[in-house]
Design a protein that fits this description.
Blueprint lengths: L15 H4 L7 E8 L3 E8 L4 E5 L4 E15 L2 E5 L4 E4 L5 E16 L10 H9 L1 H22 L9 H5 L2 H15 L8 H13 L7 H16 L5 H28 L3
Antiparallel strand pairs: 1-2, 2-7, 3-7, 4-5, 4-6, 4-7
Helix pairs in contact: 2-8, 3-5, 3-7, 6-8, 7-8
The protein binds protoporphyrin IX containing FE.
Amino acid sequence: MTNTVFSSHSSASTTLRELIQYPDRGLSKKVLLADENCQYTLLCLRKGTNISEHTASRNASITVIEGYGTFTLEEKEILLEPGVFLFMPANTRHAVKTRDNLAFLLTLSEPSQPKNQLSKHTIDVVKSTAPILKKNGKQITTRMYEIMFGNHPEVKEQFDASAQADGSQPTKLATAIYSYASHIDNLDALKSAVEKIAHRHVQTHVTAEQYPIVGESLLQAMKDVLGEIATDEVMAAWTEAYGVLAEIFINREHQIYESQGV
Ligand code: HEM
């Protein structure tokens, strides 16, 4: 656990200028306060120190306290001077160059997650289908693509034909659906998988409007393959659960498209 200046359990105030201490070379970091959602850090960069381009997995904001520098936010250059505030969503490329000693407050915060609006009953029903999905997942997703490409042939060109032919795409989708069913009570565990899939979706120009098409096809495929196991209760739970998963992807993909200026 990082040693912090303040505890998140009581109120606090300070004058940031008085906490500034530049190292002889490079930068120093003082974590003022941290909890599981947010971290407030004072960064002091000695003149000549640069931070090369990188991304952060959390939303970040910078408030300049003293000094001068240049902030590169994706392709844009922003002058850093006292009083400047800037914000960037998680995974935005950025870099810092100093022109003088430079001190700023960096705030990192968890991107807001859609609340898990599913009822305990829906969660239990979906979770109970995980073993069936493990066993029949690929059959379901293969059927899903068959239905989707039959009803919406225009979607087909977004997919890599060889990944369909060798079955690797149906396998990946089946793994994702199984993984969702088994972690539906702990969606945080899916973060890195969601991240990877969302980036692939953006690369292949998936749109929010296409989610109902996949949803319909997937639910129909579950009925076709699972037969009487796909009771009304199971189908109702999966209809709701698919909606929540679709919303997670749509929100994340919207952020990625926005960060690319699309
Ligand atoms: C909740 C629904 C969805 C899930 C769980 C899902 C899951 C996945 C997964 C696991 C992959 C593979 C990613 C990788 O290669 O690492 C993928 C790729 C892809 N998905 Fe989705 N997806 C969903 C919705 C959609 C929608 C609505 C579309 C729109 C048509 C779509 C189109 C694609 C395409 C085009 C690819 C790339 C396939 C390729 O490389 O050929 N997906 N998806």
